[in-house]
Write the structure tokens for this entry.
Amino acid sequence: MVADIKFVETKNLKAKPDVSKIGFGTHFTDYMFVMDYNTADGWHDARIVPYENISVSPANTTLHYGQAIFDGLKAYKHGDKPVIFRASTHMQRLNISAKILDIPEVPFDIALAGLKKLIAIEKDWIPTGKGQSLYIRPFIFADDPYLGVRVSQTYKFLIILSPVAAYYAHGFSPVKIMVESEYVRAVRGGLGAAKTPANYAASLHAGLIAHDKGYDQVLWLDGVERKYIEEVGSMNILFKIKGEIVSPSPKLQTSILDGITRRTVNEIAKDWGYPVVERKISIDEIIQAHNDGTLEEVFGSGTAAVISPVGVLEYKGKEYVINGGKTGDFAQKMYDYIEGIHMGTIEDKFGYVEAAE
Ligand SMILES: *Cc1c(COP(=O)(O)O)cnc(C)c1O
């Protein structure tokens, strides 16, 4: 059952920015979706209201103890029709994160209906330039005004929207990645499988150090043995080795986020006839494959960049140049294909695109 979603209109509409100049996450649309939870009423009062600051108690439990989750997905326009890429899959993952953090799951139908209604109302905000999109950020946070440590009894679920520029305005530029052998982002039994702020807090310091050394991002190894490859903080990582598409398995390594872009890449690669393998991959195996000349490509996958080719891996003070530091053919072809589905220029035979109205 889909509950009524109230709509509070504003006449104060913002001027739309020149999306090619605004980068990522700087501008927000006119409206947001909000829903509340308390133990007596469950999730209730789904509404779309003007985008505005929210007020919380200084004792708000999220501020102190971090019980919060989020997700990230994108909307596009096919002609005049607003569409959302894998909306249902993302809303399901929000509830997977919710379970891990002991947050009450949001009713899937209402969350999806609220998202679609918000996108339909805000469709004029969806930029249509190549590579541009309307980024969607659903999030849930604990809202008890209480300094004791416990699972919160009240929550807020919001969805906000931000028009974003093309990630690769000037074509791909492969990133330089540092394999992290000192710091740890998440460990087996921890929060790695959830999209939760804590994982990002845990990654900031190592990210700064990597930046200072001239690297774009950190590649995390497992926190127990410091041996198996996990992911790149806000992206999953994939390798092309001897023609196979290989990536760490979130089923075997529960400290990894089960990225939807990685799933998309693997589904398409299978359809193209590539062997697709999900397994534990040690960093030593990757270095060996590089030295043998069988490591053909390395790339990250995530909603923000879609595909991010890796040109250099640094491990224990040594740099390994991948594919001559250039974007590999597979990564390029995959990016073009997924972008084509986003833009509506390539047939969506997997049913990834969901109409918002
Ligand atoms: C969001 C995220 C990813 C990428 O997931 P997608 O569903 O592909 O966007 C990978 N790792 C982490 C830690 C993330 O938060």
The pocket of pyridoxal-5'-phosphate is lined by residues 72, 195, 199, 231, 233-236, 257, 259-262, 301-303 (CB under 6 Å). The radius of gyration is 21 Å. The first strand starts at residue 6 and ends at 7.
